[in-house]
Amino acid sequence: MNEKQRILIVDDVTLNIQLLNDVLKDEYEIFFSTNALDTIVMAEKNKPDIVLMDIMMPDINGYELCKQFKENPLFRDIPVIFITALDEIEHESKGLKLGAVDYITKPFNPEIVKLRVSNQLELKRNRDILSNLSRIDGLTGIPNRRAFDEIFAKEWLRAIREGTSISILMIDVDYFKLYNDYYGHSAGDECLKKVAQTIKLTLLRPADFVARYGGEEFVCLLPDTDETGALHTAKKILKAIIDLKLPHPTSLVSNHVSVSIGISNVMASIHSDPSIVLLEADKALYKAKDRGRNNVVLYNIEESKSEE
Predict the structure, then answer these.
(1) DSSP code for 255
(2) Number of domains forming the structure of the chain
(3) pLDDT tens, residue by residue, 138-153
(4) Beta carbons of 23 and 113 less than 8 angstroms apart
(5) Which of 99, 134, 169 is the last residue of a domain?
(6) Which of 72, 93, 117, 180 is deepest in the core (most CB within 10 A)?
């Protein structure tokens, strides 16, 4: 059975929430907020598929709240339908310009409410299917770099709000060109598939994320993870790849396929650039290669300064 799609209703009038809930509760999972200030928290917690939002609210009006939604990468793709008794053209035009997809007018017509909501949810479902396909690496079946960039941006903002750190692992298959030259590209593709799935299975927490970053390079995002946790995970990946025992007779470091891993850890901050943590992980990866490969290196800023 398919999981019910989620609707967040935002209205300061409890009666309106009750009326909409009565109309929609049989087909959808309903959440509600009675003020704009709580809506962001509610949306982040419940991850709605669509938001029904009243325009006239006492703290922040619906226009401003919609604007905040569309400026936030966590919510910008969630469709917003305005609830209003204002039926003038200028109000409707203003809402649509801000990113709303439709209007529901008071008093509510149950059939019209159902149709407008179901139409927008069907459009979103189709967009999500196409979007998900564009975020999956065609060879390995894991997320691609585009997907990683989007998830990383969201997790960075979350880490800032929660005051937590983020760790990045940059992973490269050792001497992969020699592997391809020896076995051929078809075997090389199979090797990458096995490496990708092994990394994925080694990451145990739901929030941990792996993507193919390009060629024979993979990247792992570990939210709320310190240096010790990142090192532990990297060493598990290193061992898991060796334990695959994929023969690699042309490797200069092992008889089997192995990887090198660079780690960077940072406390997320509005004053720091998220791209720096990726650059640091990349520097650590190159140091792992310089130190003989098939190993793990944690980025050290002092060592980096001394080498510049």
Answers:
(1) S
(2) 2
(3) 999 999 999 999 999 9
(4) yes
(5) 134
(6) 117
